[in-house]
């Protein structure tokens, strides 16, 4: 049960076909999934909804869901989509940190959205690539962009710093009634 949201009933998840709670946030997530499939050309099988990201920062650990991970045909995570209500700018840094922790390499493209607007960021540099739904790369554009991309691992010190950022933004600063984040007891 998710105490964080008003439950409006049930709906069928566009990607998994499972029946899930109908909330305002879930309606935005479904809108994003439909856009990625219908307008951007990704197959449903390429999208991993609510991808669990387990992080450890110091003595603390938690599991944070990533809204969508987009996969390519070779099994690489090529785009991370992070949804959250409110200001997009405040979501840039934690989304970039997640893109550096979700795979053993840097996920190349990061999309931050509140369901009404979207910002696209370069995963490696954090540089703003564009705003709006049209700025989200299509499957074809993403494939071209990633030709020759180096799937390099990040240094351990960088991974530790990024984990602390996710912990601060997504765990420590979350709404107390948000039950989507799982705190892992490290005793």
Structure description:
It is a single chain. With 187 residues, this protein is of the alpha+beta class. It has one domain: tt1808, chain A (Alpha-Beta Complex). It is built from four helices and nine strands, in the order ββαβββαβββααβ. Strands 3, 4, 5, 6, 7, 8 and 9 form a seven-stranded mixed β-sheet that branches. A two-stranded antiparallel ribbon has the order 1-2. α2 crosses α4 (156-172). The two termini are 26 Å apart. 29% of the residues are buried. The mean pLDDT is 90.
Task: Supply database-style keywords.
187 residues; alpha+beta; tt1808, chain A; seven-stranded mixed sheet; two-stranded antiparallel sheet; 4 helices; 9 strands
